[in-house]
Amino acid sequence: MSSADADQELRGLTAAEIAERVERGQVNHVDDSSSRSLGEIVRANVLTRFNAIVGALAAVIIVVGDVRDALFAGVMVSNAVIGIAQELRSKATLDRLTLVAAPRLTAIRDGARVEVGRDDLVLDDLLVLSPGDQVVVDGAIVRVDELSVDESLLTGEADPVGKAVGDGVLSGSFVVAGSAVMRATAVGDDAYAAKLAREAKAFRRPRSELERGIDMILRAVTWLIVPAGLALFFAQRYGEGDSLQQSLVGTVAGLVALVPQGLVLLLSMTQAAAVIRLGRDQVLVQQLQAVETLARVTLLATDKTGTLTTGSIVLEGIEADEPLDEALAAIAAADPQPDPTMSAIRTALPDEPGWSAQGRVPFASSYKFSAVDFGERGAWYIGAPEVVLPPTDERLGRVGALADDGRRVLAVGRADRLAATGVLPTDLRVLGLVVCVDEIRPDAADTVAYFEREHVTTKVISGDNPRTVAAIAQRCGVAGADRWVDARELPDGGDEFGDTADRTVVFGRVTPEVKRSLVDAAQSRGEVVAMTGDGVNDTLALKDADLGIAMGSGTPAARSVAEIVLLDNRFATLPGVVAEGRRVIANIERVARLFVTKTVWAAVFAVIIGAATMSYPILPRQLTVIDTLTIGVPGFFLSFRASHEPARPGFIRRVARFSVPVGIVTGVVTMVAFGIARSELVGLDRAESQSTATIILTGLGLVAIHELMRPLDRYDVTLLVSLTAAAIAAWSIPFVADFFELRLPGVEDGILAAAAVAVGGLGIMAANRNGDRLVRLASSLMSRTSRTSRVGRQK
Predict the structure, then answer these.
(1) Any catalytic annotation for residue 303?
(2) What is the CB neighbour count within 10 angstroms for residue 67?
(3) Counting Cβ atoms within 10 Å, is residue 161 exposed (0-12), middle (13-18) or buried (19+)?
(4) Whole-angstrom distance, CA of residue 238 vs CA of residue 443
(5) Which domains does the chain have, with CATH numbers?
(6) Which residue would you say has higher pLDDT here, 150 or 99?
């Protein structure tokens, strides 16, 4: 029967039936969006806690004060712009990648074959499947001709799967050999691949430690704002007797100082710069915090195909008593639809001997061999050794050993003529074995060794045969790769599942759900998990992992849920990403200490002003000068320094160890000096006192920078000298001084400022260099207080 006659027999849907299904919404419309929409991106970067705080304070200044005092709001705008621009850049890159795979399909409608787009398919459509086609809907086979499909993107299983009439085929598969007609049974969001992608997109990953730490600081500031604001306002309005406008401006100045607004911006800028650098190395970072997360990873869960291996198969050797190169080259050349193994033979033996094929038996998964008749040169058979070799053949032992070592083995034999399809000839003489192997990425072993040196555990999770996966993992140097398990034999859950997952290194025959469970089990034991993958079967695990890493050649679903996409598909790119993440973490932690120091001294100001009912010692615009010279500019340069320190937990603890004592010293010394300046002893007016306080805060800020950078190199000395020169210029250049209301000090206020900076500087040095001793002392006092409290309650 011709294909046309067969198509008449399978008429497919009529135009009326198609219209009816379109009306009911039974169309293959799938949300292939590679990331958040423009509106979602804008909302996520604009509607934040930080922007709400800063925006409200800026609004107060604009309404009641001088617009110059609202300069701090520029940080809010810059932060939002950087975040939006980065996400839009990633979205554009992913959208271009998604356009690459927009298949055209052949359907049978009204008894004729027509070409349709993926989104035009409807439920019950008949699809014609040919080698190389991508299956875009779920369906059932209604007619078949030795069909084999590659389901590796769904299951991780590398070997083609044979299909018969009535068998199901899932979206995301590819046709490797043969042909078939399939009836669509699930389309659009009901298809298997779409369900996995949708479920993956529904999950949100926990925030990184830096984000959590900074958010914790912002939450603390949020709680402080109301009581601090009330204390500042009433102290100035009713204690100092300031006007309403002066009280509001002073209150805003105090609250703005409390908010480490530049910290959020600097984090975004530093991460954005890292993203740009990584982009030059073909690494697409979709979310800024991903750079930091990878630097904290303790467990790398990687797939086999496409990560440790290239996804290709290579001919490793031929074990035979006589030369078989010519015969194998002829067999490979005669195959019109070579599978990966036959392609490997064709690549290794490209010189065709010119043998004329007079007949052939195509490969089928039902009988697991193929054959070609070369006339006088005989009929040559090649296929699975367990089928082609006699059961008593001693070479089966060798085949088993090679298979256990991760090799793919084919047996080659010759007969006088072809037998019937699916039957081996009785005179078949097996002449040798063809040994093929998954092509290991040349840089895989070095990459695995790098993570081993950095104390990152590598585990391999694959849908393939666990013996094969373990052998490949061993060749790549994965520690403990001999500890493997077939995931179908894993316990159902609970502690037993977690214990088995913890001690096992290689997992084979893993389903998407089990892969996800393995990630969750590792996280429950305190691991920071990075997951690499490229298939639909990886999407749930990629989303649940602390960091999802997809290959650029992977499916749109995998790329859309991953934070990092390796556009060049190179596993070896990851060490560079780790190094960049470590640089970001170390530098942000260093700069965070400056910002939190300001928050601490601003809190000290609020307490002293509330208790002593004093006016605020600086104007909001003067705070801009202090921020620029002691935090913004030095923070910017410090954030780009090279650093190779490993990431460590305890971000908040280390920041507090520096910032709390330094901030307390700075706040107390400045407020005491401001009080002296306003007293009858010195007798400065408010404007002169505020300028003097600004000098003191700037000087103490430079001392804090010095302590933060110790030991200093030439780069650090140059930075400190430049900042000092810029400070002198700010007070000396008339239009700058007038704009920020800065006044050159006279003799009395000059001596006061110098003495305050000297005393405060010594205090900062003592606090920083004896930080560990102070922490132990504080812990001892807290412990002693707790014991005393317990004794008192017992009495």
Answers:
(1) yes
(2) 11
(3) middle
(4) 71
(5) 3-30+122-186 (2.70.150.10), 211-274+585-791 (1.20.1110.10), 276-309+442-577 (3.40.50.1000), 310-440 (3.40.1110.10)
(6) 150
pLDDT above 50 for 97: no
Q: Could you give the residue ranges of the DSSP H alpha helices within 429-555?
A: 444-453, 466-475, 494-503, 512-524, 539-544
What is the per-residue pLDDT for 1? 45
Task: Return the structure tokens found at 584.
Answer: 């970001």
Lookup: tokens for 587? 């530098």
User: Please, which residues have CB within 8 angstroms of residue 53's CB and are 6 or more apart in sequence?
Assistant: 218, 221, 222, 225, 259
Per-residue pLDDT tens for 316-369?
999 998 899 999 999 999 988 787 888 899 999 998 898 999 998 888 767 889
Catalytic one of 303, 373, 534, 546: 303
Q: What is the reported pLDDT for 228?
A: 76
Tokens 């214990």 belong to: 499
SS3 content of the chain, % helix, strand, coil (to 5): 55, 15, 30
Amino acid at 234: F
Instruction: Specify whether the CB–CB gap between 610 and 485 falls below 8 A.
Output: no
CA distances from 733 to 685, 727, 729, 738 (A): 22, 10, 6, 9
> How confident is the model over 577-636, as pLDDT tens digits?
887 877 777 888 888 888 889 888 888 888 888 777 777 788 778 888 888 888 878 877
For 523-562, b/e burial (b = at least 16 CB within 10 A) is beeebbbbbbbbbbbbbbbbbbbbbbbbbbbbbbbbbbbb
Q: What confidence score (pLDDT) does residue 300 get?
A: 93
Handedness of CA 537, 543, 549, 555 (dihedral sign): positive
Q: What distance in Å separates the CA atoms of residue 355 and residue 346, rounded to the nearest whole number?
A: 14
Residue owning tokens 């590659």: 150
Give CA separation, 559 vs 33, 104, 177, 218, 322, in Å.
Answer: 10, 22, 27, 32, 48
Tell me the average pLDDT across 55-80: 65
Predicted confidence at residue 508, as pLDDT, reads 87
